[in-house]
Amino acid sequence: MELVVFDLDGTLLNSRSHISDYTRDTLHLLAQNGIAYTVATGRTLHAARDILEGHSFTLPQVYKNGAMIWCPQAADYSHTTFLTQGEIERVLTVVMEQDVTPFIFTLAPGNYHAIYHTPLRNDVERRLAAAFNKRSEVDVLPAEMMPADADITNVSALGKPAAIAAVARMVEGADNLVAYSGDALEGSALKWIDVHHINASKGNAVTQLKEDLGVSRVLCFGDSDNDLSMFALADESYAPDNAKPYVKDVATAVIGHHDEDGIARFLRQRFELPEN
Predict the structure, then answer these.
(1) I need a surface site. Which of 69, 86, 194, 223 has the fewest CB within 10 A?
(2) Beta carbons of 256 and 241 less than 8 angstroms apart
(3) Beta-strand (E) ranges in the chain?
(4) In 3D, which of 99, 195, 88, 75 has the Cα closest to residue 148?
(5) What CATH number is given to the structural domain containing 157?
(6) CB contact at 8 A, 222 and 250
(7) If you write DSSP's letter for every residue of 201-264 in order, what string do you get?
(8) Residue span of the structural domain in which 57 resides
(9) Rounded Cα distance, 166 and 195, in Å
(10) Is the pTM value of this prediction over 0.70?
(11) pLDDT in tens, 47-82
(12) Are both 71 and 208 inside the same structural domain?
């Protein structure tokens, strides 16, 4: 069995975070021809669910950069990787030392998702909280409301480059943590960072999918640093033309831009699917 694994933002999705009509039709052709495919994304299940609806994503799906694997058939998570209490305390301490507000992503019994935060410091953080609420369709609440039995998948933060760099340096010195960061959509003077347990990677999650599904070969598509771990294990890895330079450098090949249906056009060639 050959498995195709898509990153979403910057890869399968266009710059409006949509699946284009051409890509939609390509996914349907893959399904009709028995070609297995799924997603591995930094998004939460709730932030991806509406996007994937109606596009035959029936296999287990990787969310939060590998922290969670969701099985649509069982309507439940098959695998999860959470931060430990000590790791959480370390991350929160360094984030708050930089005068940045942590956003804490959690999963509680009953598959209840919520995002908790310490007091919001400025309008940018307030807009971010509102965006999380709208995009993820989960509750965004003050940290004091977080239940004791909630597990934490990751801690995210948005701030000035120097503050985010300080958090990244702490993560680099920690054995069991990994961080992904980049320029913020909220403004060129800001950066974001997302901190996970080191085992919560797309690479580890896709390795688990290979075992669970009996996959022999993996083809993956991605554009950013959180995709590198699955590039490392894939038999073929492809970066769209808009990918970061260091992702292109390690890809099997660089293909078309995500705003020009680059992944879909490549797949039609790769699997000899019809154009009409």
Answers:
(1) 86
(2) yes
(3) 2-6, 36-39, 61-63, 68-71, 76-80, 103-108, 112-117, 139-142, 151-159, 177-183, 191-197, 217-221, 236-240, 253-255
(4) 88
(5) 3.30.1240.10
(6) no
(7) -HHHHHHHHHHHHT-SEEEEE--SGGGHHHHHH-SEEEEETTS-HHHHHHSSEEE--GGGTHHH
(8) 2-80+200-270
(9) 13
(10) yes
(11) 899 999 999 999 999 999 999 999 999 999 999 999
(12) yes
Cα 53 to Cα 35, 47, 48, 57, 120: the distances in Å are 18, 12, 9, 8, 33
Q: What are the φ/ψ torsions at residue 80 (nearest 5 degrees)?
A: -140, 150
Sign of CA dihedral 192, 196, 199, 200: negative
Same domain, 89 and 179: yes
**Domain end marker among 150, 170, 197:** 197
99 and 161 assigned to the same domain: yes
Domain containing residue 236: CATH number: 3.40.50.1000
| Total domains, the chain | 2
Helices 21-32 & 262-270, crossing angle to 10 degrees? 30
pLDDT tens column, 233-254: 999 999 999 999 999 999 999 9
Give the whole-angstrom CA distance, residue 247 versus residue 254.
Answer: 9
Hey, what amino acid is at 183?
Answer: D
Are 193 and 205 contained in the same domain? no
Final residue belonging to a domain, choices 170, 197, 224? 197
Token pair for 165: 């760099």
Percent of the chain residues past pLDDT 70, beyond the cut: 98
pLDDT confidence bin for 199, thresholds 50/70/90: very high
